[in-house]
Write a sequence for this structure.
């Protein structure tokens, strides 16, 4: 921290923002100066943010490290706050690239597998129904995000699955 | 008046019924599953009975356990709410056989109207217009294909035992009929224990308008005007209002009279609803729901009638307290269903623990909820957390009030459909009353999940100030010779690890 | 309609006014003291301005700061709410001088009615019956003694600038007059900055009945029927209802007409209330409040009129939207004030942090609140946390509904008067409508603070299970050779102290 | 803890209750057996108690050791829970008696002293006004609990006082 303020980098919804927190209620976000106050540290985790005179209730949820879950008007977003040094370290490690095929099919919510509509090795088109998962008595068709080859099926009908669990692994579609 | 009632339900409707009963001095008995130990409906009852594990099939849908609880608590009556056992004729019969009062119509009426194909036959016979379609359940996918072809595409395949949008599939092409039939039947079996499915002409852009009915045991049947429930997604109602912005007084009278005819045809006793689809100046009988509806509060707000009170009065053998001409229609009311779903992710069911709950208040606003802070929202039951209802002298003022109320509603810990509702309440077609059941599919722009610049800046500012404050409060220990900070030591799993003194601090 | 309004108040009334303005599309500016950063009225406004420290004299009562905030936010109007600056003629004048609209009557009207002795003179001249008493402020204790003797005991000494029960002393004997005069003057100086006091005959068991008025700039004055506010303690209203259970339609008309006469006598514009005391078939002018009352919601519920909306319409230069004959009177409404006080300890002010807040909902229930979980309730301001309002077709159903709503209301972290309110709503004289301002002193049994056997057993059971659970969850380390347990190590200040393994575990 | 249940002593509002917590949802309070369940451990500190079929919401507040603050229907009570051994220790130490005169006058709430109506050495009757404290803009007369002699005055007008702070010490009224 120095006299001129503390520098941070904030990652929010895929975009990165440079922020300087001053000592006088001023915050500079991407070069624009704002008057900001944030109050309230009660048991409800609700904070009152006043940004350039405009008040908002902000829910400040679960944190680990610099990761915050924020609720604004019922919409929830995650924000990661790093100091300048940590942001540089992150940028360097991210430069190491990764090779990726089509994303695997993950369960978007907890539920029960009702039907698996594909077989291993099958080529599916984009939007093809792959697995049907029931949650809250409604059936949800999970579709292929892109044309892909079914590499491995990891679930069977009747099985309970967690949110984020991989159901089907896809591979690249290659000419056979 | 009956002395006591067991409410065979959970969530907001159980609480609504308990409230109504308490106000009449009726002793209330709540039932609850292991997942609902901390639900508000439990503590608001005079007595509470644990009836089984979270799975509805072994608790709220288990007739034996419900009747056992009623016996143990010496209940005089059972109110089924909506959903679960509310439209199961066998349940109504079992309640009567146990010598208890069933707060609802006779088992025969439920049976006749619960079988949607039988209902269509009865209504057509009574001179109530019905949507073209089959009157008998379909035996197979191929029979479905034949029937669909005869009715003409698009068609909708519907669970005969259904309701609430479950077990329904819209099919637009012949080669999709068999798959749709199977999916509808599977869902129907899971949801209602009955896989019967029939086919109807699918109206592309109808308005969903329904009439609230009440009958007593003395031959009196009245209607309490209509509700419009055209804002739906996947056949689930999202926003309801009373009256409909479409109907003229003459059409209102005509539809009300058709609904009363429908009720008289089945000797209706208690609260019920006749649902119509209205398109191009015509309306067709859709189905009759032999129970209280989710959206009953909008009718209560424009008529001043307490529908649950009337249910208890009629169930206790009383006559309806008003004649048709005495039932008021004053102002306008709107209801928004607040569900644990992520509307911008295809209405994915959301789960979590309610961490914060701010309920809107002030003039003309009503909250019928079923949750409190600390409740876990899981996947066992319906995602309806509560209903926000606003009333005003006219539709415009009710909308302005609802907009204000939605801005006040704050739920944290579980995602809800509130952001989508706020957008609909600002959308020009909605404001102008240009509604249809296709409204949501015709307004994909409502589903853009962009936060907006102002909210994005606010989120960045909040995050950075939270983190800045945290670092100021908890001096982050620095490991000598290493740039990294243990800035998250407080959130770790080893709370007894003391901070390493910072030589530079 | 005015474009924007600064609400020069806090708590529930600030939120009420902001709600009304938002519904009309008026831009809202909240002001807040350092103690109110997290108050609900702040986040519900479009803009919020910090105006000073917690002390009201340096924030909500500071005319310069309020006007400065209005200038900074380019507000077109100022709404004063009730209390604070609402009945200060100098404030109304300063607002007008600054070129802003004051949402309330003219400064001259406020001045005339704010000076209670002047008000009595004007009302008597207009033919409105007044309580016998002095018409000029008393200069000293000895002058007070003379005046009291002339009026006849018991008498009440009242702040001329007063309202809300502050700066009032009932005196029954000559030798108590001087002390009562000094206490009333001291309180009046502290609360209103004006120590003027006058004397009136004290009616022993009157009913407090007041009439809601509205006037516009076009010579129209209407009343919106009466409210009864007889349940008071120390001249502070606790429970209010509309209509009064006492008045016949003829008396209602007579009292309404007297109130309209009173308003016309001072060219009244905006919302106001004429308070009467009613005893032995007679009624007397008590005072005129030139602002919105705390208890305005009961009037809104029986008339369907949004009084804040009318205030904004009239302040914007509009005419009253209804004539006298068009103003409905439907059903019955009751309001309970929920205050941070311990009623069983002499209404001692209670402080704390709101840890839990469950707001009643369902049909016919309204909550006008000003707190959320996490708010600190201190001693800087009025103890009113919120108002619970219930309406029904008649007094009995409104009472039954209020009883149900009070059972649902749950506030933890600060004591409230709710337990007393529950008892009043069960008390036979209250149920029968046998009310007077002496009600609470005549019912000392309501203040027995005994928990009752059922609650006592429940508390014992809860405590023992909580402790049992705690010990099971956190194995209490045993120090060898000592019978004591460190059972509270988790609550201590050294969270990193690991439990000492229990050899006998 | 033993097979037949855990014994506790609960002090509530000046009365003492013997309680045995069984392992089967039974609790014996002063010899009477009750069916009890207590659920909920969420952030709101609200618990659901079902006692012999009657449900109630119970707020479980701040605890130190075996001390609990309970809220039932808006009334708040403190309960102290001791195991049998601790209760015996407490009983022994309480047997050492104390000699007491009239209770001192304590501030029942935080506020500002407006007036002190007595002088040192003065004898006041029961119910006599002693100190006036202003809180929330209302004056509150604090009265003598019994006839007493003013031993010591510890506050002066204009002074802010905390809840529980001793304002005036009383002594016994003795014939002079």
């Amino acid at each position: 921290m120095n006299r001129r303020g503390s520098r941070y980098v904030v990652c929010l919804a895929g975009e990165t923002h440079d922020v300087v927190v001053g000592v006088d209620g001023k915050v500079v976000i991407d070069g624009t100066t704002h008057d900001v106050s944030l109050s309230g540290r009660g048991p409800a985790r609700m904070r009152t943010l006043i940004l350039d005179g405009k008040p908002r209730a902000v829910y400040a949820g679960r944190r680990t490290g610099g990761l915050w879950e924020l609720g604004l008007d019922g919409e929830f977003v995650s924000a990661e706050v790093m100091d300048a040094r940590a942001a540089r370290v992150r940028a360097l490690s991210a430069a190491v690239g990764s090779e990726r095929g089509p994303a695997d099919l993950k369960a978007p919510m907890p539920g029960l597998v009702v039907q698996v509509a594909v077989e291993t090795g099958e080529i599916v088109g984009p939007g093809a129904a792959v697995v049907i998962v029931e949650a809250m008595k409604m059936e949800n068709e999970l579709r292929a995000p892109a044309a892909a080859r079914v590499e491995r099926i990891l679930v069977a009908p009747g099985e309970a699955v967690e949110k984020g669990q991989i159901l089907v692994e896809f591979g690249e579609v290659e000419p056979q | 008046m009956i002395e006591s009632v067991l409410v065979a339900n959970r969530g907001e409707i159980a609480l609504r019924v308990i409230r109504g009963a308490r106000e009449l001095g009726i002793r209330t008995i709540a039932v609850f599953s292991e997942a609902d130990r901390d639900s508000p409906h439990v503590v608001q009852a005079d007595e509470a009975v644990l009836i089984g594990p979270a799975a509805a099939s072994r608790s709220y849908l288990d007739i034996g356990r419900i009747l056992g609880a009623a016996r143990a608590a010496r209940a005089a009556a059972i109110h089924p709410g909506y959903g679960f056992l509310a439209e199961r004729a066998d349940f109504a019969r079992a309640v009567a056989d146990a010598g208890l009062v069933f707060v609802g119509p006779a088992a025969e009426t439920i049976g006749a109207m619960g079988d949607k194909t039988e209902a269509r036959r009865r209504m057509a016979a009574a001179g109530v217009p019905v949507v073209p379609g089959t009157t008998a359940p379909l035996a197979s996918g191929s029979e479905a294909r034949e029937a669909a072809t005869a009715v003409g595409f698009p068609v909708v395949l519907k669970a005969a035992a259904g309701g609430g949008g479950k077990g329904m599939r819209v099919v637009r092409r012949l080669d999709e009929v068999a798959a749709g039939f199977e999916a509808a039947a599977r869902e129907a079996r899971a949801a209602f224990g009955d896989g019967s499915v029939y086919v109807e002409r699918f109206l592309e852009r109808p308005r969903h308008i329904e009439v609230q009915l009440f009958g007593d045991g003395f031959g009196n049947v009245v209607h309490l005007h209509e509700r419009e429930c055209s804002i739906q997604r996947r056949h689930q109602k999202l926003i309801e209002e009373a009256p409909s912005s479409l109907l003229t007084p003459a059409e209102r009278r005509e539809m009300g009279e058709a609904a009363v005819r429908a009720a008289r045809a089945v000797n209706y006793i208690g609260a019920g609803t006749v649902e119509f689809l209205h398109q191009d100046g015509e309306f067709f009988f859709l189905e009759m729901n032999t129970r209280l509806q989710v959206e009953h509060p909008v009718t209560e707000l424009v008529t001043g009638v307490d529908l649950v009170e009337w249910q208890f009065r009629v169930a206790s053998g009383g006559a309806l307290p008003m004649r048709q001409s005495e039932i008021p229609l004053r102002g306008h009311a709107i209801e928004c269903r607040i569900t644990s779903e992520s509307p911008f992710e295809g209405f994915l069911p959301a789960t979590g623990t309610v961490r914060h709950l701010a309920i809107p208040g002030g003039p003309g606003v009503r909250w019928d909820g079923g949750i409190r802070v600390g409740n876990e929202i899981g996947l066992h039951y319906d995602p309806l957390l509560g209903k926000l209802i606003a009333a005003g002298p006219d539709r415009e003022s009710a909308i302005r009030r609802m907009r204000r109320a939605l801005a006040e509603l704050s739920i944290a810990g579980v995602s809800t459909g509130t952001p989508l509702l706020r957008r609909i309440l600002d959308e020009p077609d909605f404001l102008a009353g240009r509604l249809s059941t296709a409204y949501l599919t015709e307004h994909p722009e409502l589903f853009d999940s962009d936060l907006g610049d102002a909210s994005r800046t606010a989120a960045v500012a909040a995050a950075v100030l939270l983190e800045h404050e945290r670092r100021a409060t908890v001096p982050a220990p620095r490991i000598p010779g290493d740039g990294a900070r243990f800035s998250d030591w407080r959130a770790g799993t080893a709370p007894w690890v003391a901070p390493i003194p910072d030589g530079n601090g």
In short: The longest strand of chain C covers residues 221-233. Confidence is low (pLDDT under 50) at residues 475-505 of chain C.
